[in-house]
Amino acid sequence: MIWDCRNSVHRLSGLFGLTFFFLLMCLCSYKPTKINWRPVLWGFLLQFIFGIIVLRWEWGASRFIELSDMAMIMLDFTYNGTDFTYGFLSSPPNICGMEAVVAFRFLQVIIYVGALVSVLYFYGIIQAVLKRLAWLMQFTMGTTATESLNACGCVLLGNAESPMLIRPYIEKMTNSELHAIMTTGFSCIAGSVFAVFISFGACPRYLLSAAVMGAPGSLACSKLLYPETEESITKGVDDLDLPPSKERNAMECVASGSLEAVHLVTAVLASLISFVAIMALLSGIIDYAGTLIGHPGWSLEMLFGYAFFPIAYLIGVTEFEQALIVGRLLGVKIAVSDFIAYKRLGEVLHLLTPRSAMIATYALCSFSNFIAAGVQMSVLGGMSPQKKPLISKLIMRALMAGCISCFVSACIAGKLNILFENTRELFVIILSIIRRLLE
Question: How far does CA 51 lie from the centroid of its chain?
Answer without folding.
Answer: 15
